[in-house]
TrEMBL record:
Domain FAD dependent oxidoreductase, residue spans: 13-368
Organism: Nonomuraea typhae
Domain FAD dependent oxidoreductase central: residue ranges: 371-426
Domain GCVT N-terminal, chain residue ranges per copy: 429-691
Location of the Aminomethyltransferase C-terminal domain: 707-783
Keywords annotated in UniProt: Membrane, Transmembrane, Transmembrane helix
PANTHER family: AMINOMETHYLTRANSFERASE (PTHR43757), PYRUVATE DEHYDROGENASE PHOSPHATASE REGULATORY SUBUNIT, MITOCHONDRIAL-LIKE (PTHR43757:SF15)
Transmembrane segments: 12-30
Protein's name in the database: FAD-dependent oxidoreductase
Family statement drawn from the similarity comment of this UniProt entry: Belongs to the GcvT family.
Cited InterPro entries: FAD-dep_OxRdtase, FAD/NAD-bd_sf, FAO_M, GcvT/YgfZ/DmdA, GcvT/YgfZ_C, GcvT_C, GCVT_N, TrmE/GcvT-like
Length: 791
């Protein structure tokens, strides 16, 4: 199927890598009418990671958009054989996941509810029913399980061949034995590739190089944070009772999965502590190759597999596969246009889920290339969730030793990764640690979750809840001090700075110097690309503050919006610490350490003020629903300022308290309630859209929405929400919870979420299979008139 003709000197698109992902991108570009496409493979089709993949296709993912992406893959694989004439081995055999513990069963019940949120058929089943679906399984220690009939399996190499054939039918060229040795970049734009057989000029370069994707990225100056790890499975001899239609079985408590193959089983899994590989780079050539057997590393999986399927103890092993593949720092793949180089795209780092993801990821990236922007919410996989700090080989090696095992680790709420920490630290980290901070991690930053003793994970009310409740009470009743240095901070400076932001921002940002504005940044469909604050600090300069996780993404979005205007965007995150003083006594506390007049300091104002020995920017704004100020402190003064504030006797508080208070107040969060498919009308934020218009996406921003963001207040004070739970009205699903916390102010669990259809005032919430009544409102349950904020 390889094209034997000489390489062309130019093409519209060059795709590097002809595994299943590269083949899918080519197929979907051709489907969109882009046929001047060349796929370059340094070896042969599917010779890297694809050929030794297990071929499992499970639909359910952690978000609605990622689940829809996998659902598309299943639909594509089901029709591909008829379309191309190539068998794919696709079989919708379903899957069964079983639990050995009550905690795991709680997770599976939550999984089933989440599946229903996203339109995936899922059924909670008993141990007996699991045994009927999988008769060769031992079930005496099984608590229960979940049955997903729409899941399936396929042959990865055959799928790749079918996708390639489909692309070639439209004129796409696939060239084997061509190695890319360089990427041409001029003025920050990809111009083509250099190969061992000549150069190809191209308007778009797509990096689908699998384990080599990091190396290809570095050729272009692009961050592709992934690292390879050894990954294992065995294929057994025939086993009595194993039939071709046997579902895929997952036993996450035993780290193992099972798939039928030629009357035997593929037995694999994800050990808790992985074995990184390729620390000195991925060798070349490396075609259809495996690494040495490592039964010691595989033993924890095999021992658990024998426990679950006793017949394995007397069944021979036909083949041991140790096939390395690439993993990312957060166990989600990398997709999208690189922020460093225009026209350079990445689809890599699929974390052992490449077969399930390839169909949907290929279509999504093809849409991105053709249309210039993604058509759906791809934030969980967006390459821009990482920045240059993540492209460190030592850090990646240590991190992926943990992320491989996350596939079958318990999905505890608020679970924190433990490896490769600490990385990024606030200037006052040592003061926080000395005060007993329990840290979490966000975008590499160490952030305070709460102050007090570390507590075990739980699906119920956690042991740390009283500590967080006390922090919330301190802020609501007196005042609290928060270190929010991890905020991403940019300056936009230049003659046209106001014009650039007026085009991007929904709110009016052409205000007098010293004013801060909360605003959305929309896409052409009216959905949120970002929500952030913009402070005009001078006639030609703005300070832009956004979430720590969105730093690269938001910077890229704003930078693209500058175009040929006279303005320069600079990331100044590391230049400033941010300390927030929030609560009804915040004015009095700040007044005690400053000569500035905080009595005549209106909401939305931003000023340079003295604070002890230092000069800082004080901005009156809040994310907790109280009177308060954010203090932007040059990094060299951070310790001095923080010690000055501590000298007032103010309580310290962490991120969990912020989260609880913002949910009480109904404040939306990007990535939860806000995203590329959520408009201001749907979010209940139409008031942030200026009537004069002129901003991107205004045509759709205020269109009637089919679903809306609502506040949720449980009636039962003993029930606890985490997010992801289903909302039911009159027995039918109508939405789901996006953010949740215990509210010490109200004495019950509160949340934010989406409701589809007409407005409702009451609903039931499915919490791991139990139904709890809740009040539903589009108004915030705490201080809906914002009288405390404006005090």
């Amino acid at each position: 199927m390889s094209d034997r003709r000489a390489l062309p000197s130019r093409a519209q698109v060059v795709i590097i890598g002809a595994g299943i992902v590269g083949a899918s991108v080519a197929y979907h570009l051709a489907e969109r009418g882009w046929t001047d496409v060349v796929v370059l493979e340094q070896g042969r089709l599917s010779c890297g990671t694809t050929w030794h993949a297990a071929g499992l296709v499970g639909q359910l993912r952690g978000t609605e958009s990622m689940t829809r992406l996998i659902q598309y893959s299943t639909d594509l694989y089901a029709r591909l054989e008829a379309e191309t004439g190539f068998g794919t081995g696709w079989q919708r055999c379903g899957s069964v996941s079983v639990a050995r513990t009550e905690e795991r069963m709680t997770q599976l019940r939550r999984t089933a509810a989440q599946a229903r949120n996203y339109g995936v058929t899922a059924e909670v089943i008993s141990a007996r029913e699991a045994g009927e679906l999988w008769p060769v399984m031992r079930v005496d220690d099984v608590v229960g399980g979940v049955w997903l009939p729409g899941d399936g399996k396929a042959n990865p190499s055959d799928l790749t061949q079918a996708l390639v054939r489909g692309a070639q039918k439209h004129g796409v060229r696939v060239c084997e034995r061509v190695r890319v040795t360089g990427v041409s970049v001029e003025d920050g734009v990809a111009k083509g590739v250099t190969t061992d057989q000549g150069e190809i000029e191209a308007a778009h370069v797509v990096n689908c190089a699998g384990q080599w994707a990091k190396q290809i990225g570095r050729m272009a100056g692009v961050t592709v944070p992934l690292h390879s790890a050894e990954h294992f499975y065995v294929v057994t001899e025939r086993i009595e009772g194993v039939r071709p239609d046997l579902p895929v079985l997952r036993d996450p408590d035993g780290y193992a999965y099972f798939k039928e193959e030629v009357g035997g089983l593929v037995v694999g899994g994800f050990e808790p502590q992985a074995k990184p590989w390729g620390m000195d780079g991925i060798p070349y050539p490396f075609e259809f190759q495996l690494l040495e057997e490592d039964w010691d590393q595989f033993s924890i999986i095999m021992e658990n597999a024998i426990h679950r399927v006793p017949a394995l103890e007397t069944t021979g092993v036909r083949m041991f596969y140790n096939g390395p593949e690439s993993f990312t720092p957060d166990n989600m793949f990398l997709l999208g246009e690189a922020p460093e180089v225009r026209g350079f795209y990445v689809a890599a780092g699929f974390n052992s889920a490449g077969i399930a993801s390839a169909g949907g990821a290929g279509r999504a990236l093809a849409e991105w290339i053709v249309d210039g922007a993604p058509a759906t919410d791809l934030w969980p996989a967006d390459l821009r969730r990482f920045a240059r700090w993540a492209d460190n080989d030592t850090w990646l090696r240590d991190r992926v030793s943990e992320t491989l095992g996350l596939h079958y680790a318990m999905s505890w709420p608020n679970r924190e990764l433990e490896t490769a920490r600490p990385l990024r630290r606030s200037p006052v980290h040592h003061l926080l640690a000395a005060a007993g901070a329990c840290f979490g991690s966000k975008a590499g930053w160490e952030r305070v979750n709460y102050f007090g003793t570390a507590a075990p994970y739980s699906f119920g009310r956690p042991e740390w809840q009283p500590q967080v409740d006390a922090e919330v009470a301190a802020c609501r009743n007196q005042a609290a001090l928060f270190d929010q240095t991890s905020f991403a901070k940019f300056t936009l400076k230049g003659r046209d700075a106001a014009a650039v932001l007026r085009r991007l921002c929904t709110a009016e940002v052409d205000v007098e110097a010293g004013r801060v504005v909360y605003t959305g940044l929309l896409n052409d469909r009216g959905g949120y690309e970002a929500d952030l604050t913009v402070t005009r600090v001078a006639q030609d300069e703005y300070l832009i503050v956004t979430g720590s996780a969105q730093a690269t993404r938001d910077f890229d979005h704003i930078a693209k919006g500058i175009g040929d205007k006279r303005a320069v965007l600079v990331d100044v995150t590391s230049a400033y610490a941010v300390f927030s003083v929030m609560g009804p006594k915040s004015r009095k506390i700040l007044q005690s350490v400053s000569k500035a007049d905080f009595e005549v300091f209106p909401f939305g104002a931003s000023r340079l003020v003295d604070l002890g020995y230092a000069t800082v920017r004080a901005t009156r704004v809040t994310y907790v629903g109280e009177l308060g100020w954010e203090l932007y402190v040059p990094a060299e003064f951070a310790v001095t300022v923080y010690e000055t504030l501590l000298g007032t006797g103010i309580a310290q508080a962490g991120h969990y308290a912020v989260e609880a208070m913002r949910i009480e107040k109904g404040y939306r969060a990007w990535g939860r309630e806000l995203g590329p498919e959520v408009t201001p009308a749907a979010a209940g934020l139409g008031f942030t859209c200026r009537k004069s218009g002129g901003y991107r996406g205004e045509e759709h921003a205020l269109e009637p929405a089919g679903r809306h963001v609502v506040s949720i207040v449980l009636d039962d004070p003993e029930a606890h929400l985490w997010g992801g739970e289903s909302l039911l009205h009159e027995g039918a699903p109508v939405g789901y919870v996006t953010s949740a916390a215990h509210s010490p102010t109200l004495g019950v669990a509160v949340g934010l979420g989406f409701v589809t259809g007409p407005a409702i005032e009451k609903a039931q919430v499915d919490i791991a299979g139990g139904l709890y009544s809740a009040q539903i409102s589009r108004k915030a349950p705490y201080d809906p008139t914002s009288s405390r904020v404006k005090a």
